[in-house]
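re: ur question from earlier - yeah i can do the single chain one, its not a big deal. heres the input i used so u can compare w yours
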Amino acid sequence: MTHQKMTILVVGGAGYIGSHITKMLLEEGHQVIILDNLSTGHKQLIVGGEFVHGHLGDVSLLDKTFQQFRIDAVMHFAAFSLVGESVSAPMKYYENNVVATSVLLNAMIRHNVQHFIFSSTAAVYGEPETIPMDEDHPCNPTNPYGATKLTVERMLQDYASAYDLTYTSLRYFNASGADPSGSIGEMHDPESHLIPLLLKWAKGDLTEMKIFGDDYDTADGTCIRDYVHVNDLARAHILALAKSISDNTPAIYNLGNSTGHSVYEVVETARKITGHPLPVTIAPRREGDPAVLVADSRKARAELGWRPQFEDLTEIVRTAWNWESKRSS
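and the output i got, formated as tokens:
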């Protein structure tokens, strides 16, 4: 990472991934401005920095924020991200994920802020044609969530060609785990991710745990996913920003451990970590769930020097349990 100390606007910094990145940036001595409307973020996840309460689509608030702080770069985590909800409420997703993001980018251009790090997703790819999936895999999203992220990536490409703006788009696979300190972690309402749901089940916060489909064409019949630790994601953003500043070139990277784990493997790992039996109920498949999603993240490793520290599923689940078991529901 560059030793230059910067002022970074973290949009959505009170959320799961944004809070971990904020913590890491602060530890490295950067000034962090958090912009969050707390619609899905949480005040208790704000670990420091300056907090600006508001929406990324608020033109006057953005102008005021860019004027008040000499911002060097923007990291954007303020998207809505529930696949099912995006199907039933696409308007909400396009308004926030696309329209409001264009407002943010326009503000950056007005205030001569060049560097934009974008939280994207493997959902831009849609159904996998090859496994593992690299950055050249065709992008055919199967839901509005993925479509909004891909729309922003295309917008970034056009903006970078026309304006003094450079970007890095980071396509996450399954973000998971929590900071080893146990001070911050995953807090979604409703929760839809497998690992925290299992841990809530272990704590007694849920009355049943459903697995969606055990008849996939995989070794044990359950879906296989690539789980990547949230602190490894955070590190990738910091490396991406350093590279963006040094070479000023737009880039896209997959972020995953390049290893797949089945739902049953995750359940078994959660049993081992928590000591709970975690009986699960088999429910029908969810529409649009591919059997296998695994990242080819060699490009991030080669170009960013990214080295995930939490490649072992047991360690990922252990950090998540450390967080979940401490917090009251």
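The first helix runs from residue 16 to 27. not sure if urs matches, ping me
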